[in-house]
Amino acid sequence: MSEQTIQLIVKRQKDQDSKSYEERFELPYRPNMNVISALMEIRRNPVNAKGEETTSVAWDASCLEEVCGACSMVINGKARQSCTALIDQLEQPIRLEPMDTFPVVRDLLIDRSQMFESLKRVKAWVPIDGTYDLGPGPRMPEAKRQWAYELSKCMTCGVCLQACPNVNDKSEFIGPAAISQVRLFNAHPTGAMHKAERLETLMDGEGGLASCGNSQNCVEACPKEIPLTTSIAAMNRATTLQSFKNFFGTDNTA
């Protein structure tokens, strides 16, 4: 890598209906830069490698601490967070592309609405009825709390959906993140009141568990190392038990 400049190739797109194109940028090098700081440099001085004035690159970011998941993009062929992608650790020229599993709004900015809609479908929250003081809730056993905490690290970054070959515009598959969240909230003492409803959603033929091809790309790609395939296996077992309960008409909340 040159000690003086940074070479970036950005896949750009003006809007959802426009064709994509590549634009090269050459930036002055500074130690300890990440991809976000390089994009901020382009925003400050939007001139491409040919010396032509251009528009600043659109991207999304918030926490800059790999917590919010907003800055996810494909960097040198791998989906990851741009806030923790250090320039010194990347091969140049650095190629930046949007995660194409999601609709592109502009340049590197994508619309992750499908992830949030999937979380709504599976009721990925702990329901609380009313605003009054309910007092302390039931406690979780420490062993369960520890593995539940690992599942709670999900930041809806979308990297697992980008890596999954079964998530595409021809499939309704909700993806591994939502499935893992079903496991998380079904394990919660209060969240379990919607346990059967969540499992019924996963049993839905349109986008449910049956659409998982078990490629296991998701668990390899997850930046938080969430055991997504373990969650998928656990939910496969849970939905099988739920189907028996439905067939025999037993109590679905048991």
Automatic annotation (TrEMBL):
Keyword check for 4Fe-4S: yes
Highest taxon listed in the record's lineage: Bacteria
Name this protein carries in UniProt: succinate dehydrogenase
Entry keywords, A to Z: 2Fe-2S, 3Fe-4S, 4Fe-4S, Iron, Iron-sulfur, Metal-binding, Oxidoreductase, Tricarboxylic acid cycle
Species of provenance: Salisediminibacterium halotolerans
Gene Ontology molecular function, alphabetical: 2 iron, 2 sulfur cluster binding; 3 iron, 4 sulfur cluster binding; 4 iron, 4 sulfur cluster binding; electron transfer activity; metal ion binding; succinate dehydrogenase (quinone) activity
SUPFAM superfamilies linked to this entry: 2Fe-2S ferredoxin-like, alpha-helical ferredoxin
Keyword Ribonucleoprotein: no
Class of this enzyme: oxidoreductase
EC numbers: 1.3.5.1
Family: Belongs to the succinate dehydrogenase/fumarate reductase iron-sulfur protein family.
Family annotation (InterPro entries): 2Fe-2S_ferredoxin-like_sf, 4Fe4S_Fe-S-bd, 4Fe4S_Fe_S_CS, Beta-grasp_dom_sf, Helical_ferredxn, SDH/FRD_Iron-Sulfur, Succ_DH/fum_Rdtase_Fe-S, Succ_DH/fum_Rdtase_N
One of the GO biological process terms: tricarboxylic acid cycle
Gene3D superfamilies on file: 3.10.20.30, Alpha-helical ferredoxin
Cofactor: [4Fe-4S] cluster; [2Fe-2S] cluster; [3Fe-4S] cluster
Pfam families found in the cross-reference section: Fer2_3 (PF13085), Fer4_8 (PF13183)
Limits of the 4Fe-4S ferredoxin-type domain: 145-173
Secretion signal span: none
